[in-house]
Structures are given as structure tokens and as C-alpha cells.
Amino acid sequence: RTQATCSCRSIAAAGASLAACTRGSDGSPAPTAPGGPKDPDRALRAEVGRQETALSALYAAADAKLPAAQAASVTALGARHAAYRQAIDPDGLATQPPSADPTDGASPSPSLSTSPTPAVSLPSGAADIVAALRKAERAAATSRVAQSVRAVDAELARLIVLAGTGAAGAAEVLVGGVS
């Protein structure tokens, strides 16, 4: 296992532990807990969760189109997006449709996807697929910077920064292609 894979599991475990500590007696998030109905970062958690889900889908599609040797490397890079999504959005807000309520803290921002099951379109050819992954990672890194500033909760901001740093690192790994 790579160090990045282990770190992502630690991030996911930390997010799950934090969520477990803030549950009501029925197991649902406490109203002001991360992901709870009154969480000021609820819309942000869902937004980042949808984007991380879209990146996971992009990597899964790339894995299916690349030769086996490259697919293994791509799978390792892409696996961390599921861990980031779980840490940032442990209650699966990303699978719920974006709220139409303007008071829920949502603010319009560019996103990689607004649907819980994004349609993925990739070019043909390994070099073009890797370039598309690199472009998506760079866009994710840029988005995470802006999203981390919007976070009210310091722990959420830290997790978003970690996801952005991971995206920027993956983009740099992909510069040389994958083997």
C-alpha cells in the first residue's frame, strides 16, 4: 500500500469518528453537528462531496479505458477521492439533490458535478486520458482553495485543504504520466 492510501484511510477514519461523536440518540446528526440540519457548512459538505464523487467516477472510467499497468496506478490515485468524500461528507449529503432553499448556506460556485452519479466522458488514448485526469485534479485543487475559505468549521476547512493538497499532488504525479 502506498503512503497516500494509508493517509486517506486516516482522513476517512477521522471524519467518521468526528461524525460518530456528534450523533443524536437515534443515530442522525445532531442539528448543529457536521452534516446536521443546522450545520452552517451543510451545503458546502454536499458540494465538495459531489465533486469528490465525480472525481471517483472519472478515475473509475479511466481505469476501464487504460491498459492494465496504467490502470493500476490510476486506481491508486483515484481511490483517495472516496476517502476525502467520506471524511468531508460522512452523512452522504452529496447523494441528496442540492437544496432550493436560499437560506441553507449554499452559494453558487463552479463544480465538477452537481449530480450524485455523474456521467463521465473521457477522450480515447492513454495520454489524453491522463491529461484529462490531470486537468480535473488541477481544477479540484483550485476549487478546494476557495471552498476551504468558505468553511465555517475549522476542521472542515482543514479536511478540504487536505483534499486540495492531494488533488494538487496527484496532478503533479500525472504530469509524467502513469506507468
Structure, described:
With 179 residues, the protein is mainly alpha-helical. It is 62% helix and 0% strand. The chain has helices at 3-21, 42-65, 68-88, 126-150, 154-175. The longest helix is centred in the C-terminal third of the chain and has 25 residues, at 126-150. It is elongated. It starts with a helix and ends with a helix. The model is unreliable at 1-6, 12-23 and 100-117 (pLDDT under 50).
Which range does the strand content fall in? under 5%
Order of helices and strands: HHHHH
The number of helices is 5
Helix content: 55-70%
- Are there runs of 5+ residues with pLDDT below 50, and where? 1-6, 12-23, 100-117
**What is the 3D form?**
elongated
- Class inferred from helices and paired strands: mainly alpha
Mean pLDDT: 78
Largest sheet: none
The overall strand count is 0
Radius of gyration: 16 Å
What is the topological layout?
Layout: H1 3-21, H2 42-65, H3 68-88, H4 126-150, H5 154-175
Helix pairs in contact: 1-3, 2-3, 2-4, 3-5, 4-5
Please summarize what this structure is:
This protein has 179 residues and is mostly helical. The chain is built from 5 helices and no strands. The protein has helices at residues 3-21, 42-65, 68-88, 126-150, 154-175.
